[in-house]
Amino acid sequence: MTAAIAGIGATEFSKDSGRSELALAAHAGLAAITDAGLRPSDVDGMVTFTMDANAETALARELGVPELTFFGRVPYGGGAACAVVAHAAMAVATGAASTVLCYRAFNERSGRRFGQVHTPDGVDNGWHYPMGLVTPAASVAMFARRYQHEYDVTSEDFGRVAVLDRRAAATNPNAWFHGRPITLADHQASRWIVEPLRLLDCCQETDGAVALVVTTVDRARDLPRHPVVIAAAAQGSAADQFTMHSYYRDDLTGLPELGLVGRALWAGSGIGPEDLSALVLYDHFTPFVLVQLEELGFCARGEARHLLADGTLELDGRLPLNPHGGQLGEAYVHGMNGITEAVRQLRGTAANQIRDAEHVLVTAGTGVPTSGLVLSR
Amino acid sequence: MIEEAARELAARGESARRVARDPVNLPMIRNWTEAIGDDNPTYEHYAPPAMAQVWTMPGLAGQRPADDPLGAMVAVLDEAGYTSVVATDSEQTYHRYLSPGETVEVSSRLDGVTGPKRTALGEGWFVTTRSTWYVGDEPVAEMMFRVLKFRPSGVAGTAIRPAVSSDTEFFWAGTALGELRIQRCGGCGRLRHPPGPMCPSCRQTRPGYVVAAGEGTVYSYVVHHHPPVPGRAAPFVVALVELTEGVRMLAELVGVPPSEVHIGLEVRVGFSRVDGELTLPVWRRR
Predict the structure, then answer these.
(1) What is the pLDDT of residues A195-230, one digit of tens each?
(2) A76 is catalytic
(3) Is A332 assigned a catalytic role?
(4) How many domains does chain B have?
(5) Average pLDDT of A225-244?
(6) What is the mean pLDDT of residues A328-337?
(7) B188 and B90, same domain (yes or no)
(8) Across the interface, do B160 and A134 touch by the CB < 8 Å criterion?
(9) Which residue of A118, A332, B109, B170 shows the fewest CB atoms closer than 10 Å?
(10) Domain spans in chain A, listed from the N-terminal domain onward
(11) Domain containing B219 — which CATH number?
């Protein structure tokens, strides 16, 4: 790859930002541009999520970005997280733009809450929402139940993801759950949301924004920050794919779209699972963290619970997972805060810094067409 | 508990007769016909038949007698969380005209309680009572009266509706008729759910359908607790079912306590009419 992440920025993560989503986007965008040592007038491309409510034009007006030669959006909710960087990297690689601002901004707690019941459009949704399967938690719970059934996985196995995330968040000052670790007993005592998911299996809802600046590696080398190279970026959609409801495949215990992304990342970067310094896995709901570990080849099918139990993924383990606290612990900014954490780890500026971090894997939303990144120092 | 209480109340039969506060009288007839706008001269001599219920109204501060079956059944349903009420229909039968000076008495019995039914307002029970008005021992009028006692769904009438396209309307037309339809390719015969316009096996665009036997087993399921869902009372179960025809299909599993649901549970399809435009498939234990 010839692209790098040159700057990152974010707002505070809260439950009530007190300002508009556009104000959040502008704040994070300016922070990312400034962090890169650039000015808004250097930006000539923008990429965000299809779900983002802030038009590129509106953000450009606020920031004083005069001209855009590239703008695009990526669909499928949090599955877009790493894909916005992939699209930006392709834009700078082809010369469609030189400096691309990627952003995601929402008042997802004080405004439209993802965890509440909505009635989405689309014929596909008609097979699920009217039947009473009405929240993302419910959609994931259907997979989780089958996964438990086939591999003898327990609620405690899911709970270990939450405990791990919250342990890291406890020592991350930017995390909403800073200073508030949980025990497995806390997880087991938390109420059912949609069985087999408990409250502490479900990530929080957050008001906030994250932005980052992608440019060419050559250009990034001339900027003040140490560039974080996009070693590989990939998107994936697999056979018989639905958004959150791929219930009609033979096997319900995998995430084949993520397996596809993983294979593309290893092939594109020449970096394999054994080369990674840390993992940032998308954790809107705990069960899919286990499935991701299996799908990406860190262990065999049904074995991820052992990885979680044996300390491998702890901050001081061989392969730390979500050192910022993940979305369960830090904030839910649709996966974008996981990318900025990977950048901090590779710069050596993370709250829970991993020694000599060289390559970090980041994944995007699961259960949907998804994406991933391998970032390198 | 609800069905038991209903059986017990129905078995009590007619309540004690309650005597009208006043005899049938011309001043009340005049007020009533003027309010209604009915100037039929017959009502100078006889009471309009539709006034039957008027004569035994308990008055503004009146209370239901303790043995009134509707009051007792409403209390049971209130207790069970079905706290809202809407009258749905009423049928009156008149045996003869009443004349001023006659004193009527009324007696009621519980005819039946059916449910739980899913309605656009929320889940509820239909309570049907029958009242008879007497003069002496002569029945002069009768009334069937039905109410829906329902659990308010938060926002009434907001059942989540499917987006329907020309590719999928056959399915919803089927549920309205009590048929569970599975798309069948007109070219290669492949069965497919959810349906679509082009067969992914042979690429023909001639989809038809078969009517499923409606039997299958639970492949996976969830128990929804939170947040509240319009039109449904938590906890409720949604199950992904593998039909005997080989396709999977999702629907609510009703009539089985969540603790008794398990993967492999044998189910049969049923149909839950939401309103004139939407009927949902549901699973029931086989």
Answers:
(1) 999 999 999 999 999 999 999 999 999 999 999 999
(2) no
(3) yes
(4) 2
(5) 97
(6) 98
(7) no
(8) yes
(9) A118
(10) 3-111+203-376
(11) 2.40.50.840
- Angstrom distances, CA of residue A13 to CA of A168, A209, A332: 16, 8, 9
B278 to chain A nearest CA, in Å? 10
Distance (Å, whole) CA B218 – CA B225: 19
Q: Is residue B163 part of a domain?
A: no
DSSP per residue, A169-225: HTT-TTSTTTT----HHHHHHSPEEEETEEGGGB----EEEEEEEEEEHHHHHTSSS
What is the interface size between A and B, counted as CB pairs within 8 Å?
108
Minimum-distance CB partner of A131 among B167, B258, B280: B280
Nearest CA in chain B to A192: B225
**How far apart (Å, rounded) are the C-alpha atoms in residues A59 and A73?**
14
Q: How confident is the model at residue B2, as a pLDDT? A: 86
| pLDDT surpasses 50 at B156 | no
Query: Amino acid identity of B1?
Result: M
Say yes or no: B121 and B180 in one domain: no
**Beta-carbon-side half-sphere exposure of residue A44 (alpha carbons within 13 Å):** 11
What CATH number does the domain containing B84 carry? 3.10.129.10
Which domain does B45 fall in, by range? 2-150
Does B157 fall in a domain?
A: no
Which residues in chain B are contacts of A196 at CB distance < 8 A?
222
Closest partner CB to A130 (pick from B162, B240, B258): B162
pLDDT at site B154: 47
Cβ distance A123 to B168 less than 8 Å, yes or no, reads yes
Interface of A with B (CB under 8 A): 115-117, 119, 121-135, 138, 141-143, 145-146, 149, 191-196, 245, 247-248, 252
Give the chain B residue whose CA is nearest to the CA of A139.
Answer: B222
Residues B186 and B247 in one domain: yes
Domain boundary among B93, B122, B150: B150
The CATH H-level superfamily of A3-111+203-376 is Thiolase/Chalcone synthase (3.40.47.10)
What does residue A170 show for φ and ψ, rounded to 5 degrees? -60, -25
Residue B143: partners with Cβ closer than 8 Å, 6 or more residues away:
B52, B53, B90, B91, B92, B93, B130, B131
Express each pLDDT in B88-98 by its tens digit: 889 999 999 99
Whether residues B86 and B138 share a domain: the answer is: yes
Are B108 and B245 members of one domain?
A: no
Q: A316 exposed, middle or buried (CB, 10 Å; 0-12, 13-18, 19+)?
A: exposed
Q: Which of B98, B120, B150 is the last residue of a domain?
A: B150
Q: pLDDT, tens digit, for every residue of B182-202?
A: 999 999 999 999 999 999 999
Encoded tokens for B167: 């590719």
Of B228, B249, B280, the CB nearest to A130: B280
A163-174 residue pLDDT tens: 999 999 999 999
Report d(CA B263, CA A150) in Å as an integer: 10
Least confident range from A186-190, A298-302, B61-65: namely B61-65
pLDDT band of B153, cuts 50, 70, 90: low
Confidence category of residue B86, pLDDT binned at 50, 70, 90? confident
CB A116 to CB B194 under 8 A? Answer: no
Which residue on chain B is closest to A116 by alpha carbon? B227
